[in-house]
Amino acid sequence: MKYVGLQTQIWRNNINSLILLLMFPLVFYALSWLFVFLISGDGEYDPVANANTSFIYMFPWITAGVAIWFLIAYFSHTSMINKATGSRPLERKENKRVYNLVENLCITAGMKTPKINVIEDDSYNAFASGLNEKTYTVSVSRGMLNRLDDKELEGVIAHELTHIRNKDVRLLIVSIIFVGIFSFLAEMFFRSMLYGGGGNRKGKGGGAVIIGLVLALVGYLISILFRFAISRKREYMADAGGAEMTKNPLALASALRKISSDPRIEAVERQDVAQMFIENPQEKKKGFSFSTIFATHPPIEERIRLLEQY
């Protein structure tokens, strides 16, 4: 394999992630137009022109609804993550080692020191969260604090600080919100069909519910694939950034080996929260298979191999 420099890898991943993120609203508007087209295509007028006219009229209402949903979810996401993971502030007095590692790395990277939380679990895992400098947080499991040496723990912390520095947390939150929109629409149409009689109703009303359900499910599937692709690319970039920050890629590779042996955090059950960890505890991946398309993280063996080639 041809060697690719760190900055080139970061640049490529940023471009690819931006493209994937732009696809979310495009897919939403495209499916909205298709919905209008399918429910209004049996008239005596040109169905495309008819759909265009209706869509232009509905466009500001669709945009406003999505924007309201987005803002509510965006600003409530941090508290949801903390509750879902059981993370709490790490006391500085008893954990000066950890604070020294984080602060030294932040000075090196020229960034503000985030909050530090601990998850009371003996497994190996960590994640970064927050929306701005006031809420950015690095959370690490108790098992990681107790069983990684300083170099390995430094590599993991540098990985999470890279997520914060590169605004990965914001990117993942945006992708999760768009998936949530399609999930909500699919559930709404399904309930309408199930309890409102939409599936048994003759004519345009029942057909619109069925069409809406199918298109919402299509959008949900596409948005999940986009979200997973974004998450995988960001993990590669955070590994590279962590290696650059510590100048010790082998230490991070060693930490990832230990993490792979026991990454499961018992309190974490939701997939959208699990994908934020350095290794998703709900996934088992080895090599390429159809299941890897739906994986939020690349195979940890591949991540270790790339770190060892620096």
* SSE string: HHEHEEEHHHHHHH
Class of secondary structure makeup: mainly alpha
Placed side by side, the strands forming the largest sheet appear as 1-2-4-3
The shape, in one word, is elongated
Percent strand equals 5-15%
Q: Count of helical segments?
A: 10
Mean pLDDT, to the nearest integer, reads 81
The major β-sheet equals:
4 strands, mixed
Report the end-to-end length measured between terminal Cα atoms. Answer: 13 Å
Count the strands?
4
In total, the number of domains comes to 1
Over the alpha carbons, how many angstroms does the gyration radius reach? 22 Å
Helical coverage, percent range? 55-70%
Parts with pLDDT < 50 across at least 5 consecutive residues: none
Please give a handful of descriptors for the protein shown:
four-stranded mixed beta sheet; elongated; mainly alpha; 310 residues
